[in-house]
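Researcher: For the record, we're logging two predictions in this thread. I'll number them. Prediction 1 follows.
Model: Prediction 1, sequence and structure:
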Amino acid sequence: MKALTWQGKRKVSVETVPDPKIEAANDAIIEVTSTAICGSDLHLYEVLGPFMEPGDVIGHEPMGRVVEAGPSSNLSEGDRVVIPFTIACGSCWMCDRGLYSQCETTQVKEYGSGAKLFGYSKLYGSVPGAQAEYLRVPHADFGPIKVGEDLPDHRYLFLSDVLPTAWQAVQYADVGEGDALAVFGLGPIGQMCARIGRHLGARVFGIDPVPERRAMAQRHGVEVFDYTDETNDAIRDATDGRGPDGVVDAVGMEAHGSPLGKAAHQAVGLLPDALSEPLMEKAGVDRLAALHSSLDLVRRGGAVSLSGVYGGEADPMPMLTLFDKQIQLRAGQCNVKAWIDDLLPLVEDSSDPLGVDDLVTHRVPLDEAPGAYEMFQKKEDDCIKVVLDPKAES
């Protein structure tokens, strides 16, 4: 089959790789009909190379059709399914508590990491990813989300990651009707965080340096701001001088305005893997501008929610601010299946309350994925969300 493979820093290529096979009774194989490029994939493309091997198949936002179902998979050939990016058993101590991203059955204990993820480095199990024609789905008796036949893929596809990640982020920010929410970063996750905040009745402020991203958020009732030194003061002025009740950092480790962190990333990228891997595991190498801005902006007694991925173990944190302002700080990989009952009715609603129809800016054949990665990273051609079609011809 054809699949997108990691080959080095800022280098991916479509290669022919072996077809996946059933390996356990609760496995399934799907033919991928749509698979998206995530902002987290760009961390592999740019920063997390020390944990990748040339030839690794990447991608973790797929949906498709079951073509082979193990006898214990609870699936049948032909089922249309969305596959969550986290791999969980659904029955361990953590899963019983809805903490599916901490599944004890699939935890990557070698690296002290949580549940395995599709296509996301040695840190998360080196499981072959979903930017491919076919995908093996472990624990298919629990993970896959069966969906209907009437709506196009893009209405369901983002149940794999974007929508539940955004929903959890807003829940962790602890906002609702009449509250104020700020979202740093208006990529796909930030766009949906902002729209979910609006759906729940909050006043939402969106911050991003890219005009096209601000314009998309503005179409959905979000008050938008460029990322400048004056932004936090302007939002405080709009919230009676206090700041918003909750803030979501939807940017993560590659934030703009973090020159020292950027230099650290570039230095690590030049080292051999034997040196760079332990440095990434133990050092503080994240770009923290968005996180520090979030902590500065949130009102006293408010909540900051981290949905952007961070990778450093010794990042400097403003502990005085955290303590003095009585800030709640919540973070973590999304527990996808915990939120599907809330989200499935919204994506199937004919009124499209979350504006899912207005998120994909580019749909391209799988063969064109390398160019799409470069376009997405450089934010060219108004690119906000790319969906790859493994069945389309270039």
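Researcher: Logged. Prediction 2.
Model: Prediction 2, sequence and structure:
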Amino acid sequence: MSKSKEWLATAGTNTKLCHGGYEPSDYHGFVNPPVVHASTVLFPNARAMETRTQRYTYGTRGTPTTDALCTAIDELEGSAGTILVPSGLAAISIPFLAYLSSGDHALIVDSVYSPCRHFCDTMLTRLGVEVEYYDPEIGAGIEALMRPNTRLVHTEAPGSNTFEMQDIRAIAEVVHRHDCVVTMDNTWATPLYFKPLDFGVDVSIHAATKYPSGHSDILMGTVSANAKHWPKLLEAHGAMGICGAPDDAYQILRGLRTMNLRLEHHFRSALKVAEWLEEQAGVARVLHPALPNFPGHEIWKRDFKGASGVFSFVLAADSPEKVKPKAHAFLDALQLFGLGWSWGGYESLAVLVNLDDRKIRKGQKDGAVIRLQIGLENVEDIIADLERGFAASAAV
């Protein structure tokens, strides 16, 4: 029999991460949950099979391993339920399909994760959903964009690549007056630094590929909903048959145990690097919400408990034709930083950002936007590598 975990509700963050989602006494005292591989689940008799009265019925509907992760995420999010899916993009697309139908109108923040925009502009529009993009800093002004057929408003704070902050509570209050669902991609902050459902969001979305995994080797997404919107999310998840694998769920659960410790390191190191970048002659602007002179800093300071290791800066260029050559020279000179997509792992990464798909918040004109993922390496080594990049860029 499981022990009561009522004490966990008032425990500290690290304690919750260490003990959430699993009770060792359920499985003979083993500290970690078993990895249960399942497709077929057997029933004791025909009546039980007909009524599906047992907890597990088929592999796509969950296993003890995936349930352990879902429970841990629910404890962090304060959600009524969580589904697991094979990627962060799937974590965005499934709730969109759950809550939107042909003829509906959806408002999507213009600073959104680019693959999300591609899904909206292709799959959603083909299915008859009208997609409209809005300024991330619109706040309560989103009222002017609401229509009788608006059914979903998608948020992301800070915004992908350029890190605009959104006033999530103000947006949610307006949207809920129109009986619309509010979704949020909260991958950057994780529920440790921002809890979307506490600010009026109905559905919280994460690419668990990033900080929950922490090691650049797992693809997974989580979607957590409040009580009102959980049934429809669960129904869509079951209808589509898209589920997370138990081995991956086990690894994500393992990553959760150290996520707060890793995030604290990412936060400290990234802020130090961002402050250093502000002093560099080759930098036109640093895009980091935790910097006091960043436009969205006050919202970040009011609503968020911390910042992760991802931010961008604008590499200065004195003429348009030098923007890309300078960026390529900078990136090619890096030795510690890897050039690769994604983030949230232990290693530092850099990527040249493409903002050509923006509708409202267009790209920067005074240089290239370079996004950095500051990993767990020593800050002095990270800065030394960036100095190599600036030296190469200055020679162009």
